[in-house]
Amino acid sequence: MLWAIKHTDHALMVVALETLQEFVVRVSQSGMALQFFTAYLHNILTEVLLVILDKLHVSALPYHCAILVDIFKLVGQQAWDAPVIGGGAVQNLLKECFSHLEFLNTAQAETFIQASLQATSVDQYTIQMQDFLIEVDVWGAAQENDEADRLARLERERAIPELVRNQQGTRYGDMANQQQ
Q1: Contacting residues for 21 by C-beta, under 8 A, at least 6 apart
Q2: E strands of the chain, at which residues?
Q3: 66 with 25: CB under 8 angstroms?
């Protein structure tokens, strides 16, 4: 399932995310929740967060957030100091994961982690996640857009040199006279 949530085929990714969410919900309601999440919580959280940070998976953000909210609800039901799935352990895990992201400072990470651990509504958490991704320039990075525009313009200029001269104020007829 974790492989399929990374897939770029939207239909396959959505089926995998829906399946993973249903699986997380059912396991969290079973007698095996503690054992399962003790073994697999780290992997699930890490993989879902990595996919969220990948711009190829933007359209599935509500599914990712639904999975995370279900996990954070389960974490909230545990003792704060419970190993692996307690709030303190998950907070430390998230801090560790976020510490490797160059674009994220400690204050941003801590604010987002606290909001995540308190998440109860998928809709509200999705909005929080969108705001967070925009704030840390994972989405809507102006520099990336400017650079992409600049590279596209250079590519056009290389492909059609006359266009460049025309845009610089030289008329087509003037170019013919200059070439003679």
Answers
A1: 63, 66, 67, 70
A2: none
A3: no
The answer to whether the CB of 164 falls within 8 A of the CB of 153 is no
- CA torsion sign for 19, 85, 101, 136 is positive
Contacts of 75 (CB under 8 A, 6+ apart): 85, 86, 87, 90, 117
138 contacts 103 by C-beta, under 8 angstroms: yes
Q: Is the alpha carbon torsion for 54, 89, 17, 111 positive or negative? A: negative
Q: Is-above-0.90 flag for pTM?
A: no
Q: Tell me the C-alpha distance between 4 and 13, whole Å.
A: 6
pLDDT, one tens digit per residue, over 146-157 is 556 677 777 777
Tokens of 110: 């801590």
Strands (E), 37-97: none
Say how many C-beta atoms besides its own lie within 10 A of residue 76's C-beta: 15
Rounded to an integer, what distance in angstroms lies between the CA atom of residue 20 and that of residue 33? 14
Q: Does the pLDDT value for residue 172 go beyond 50?
A: no
User: Which residues are CB-contacts of 145 (< 8 A; sequence separation ≥ 6)?
Assistant: none
pLDDT at 71: 94
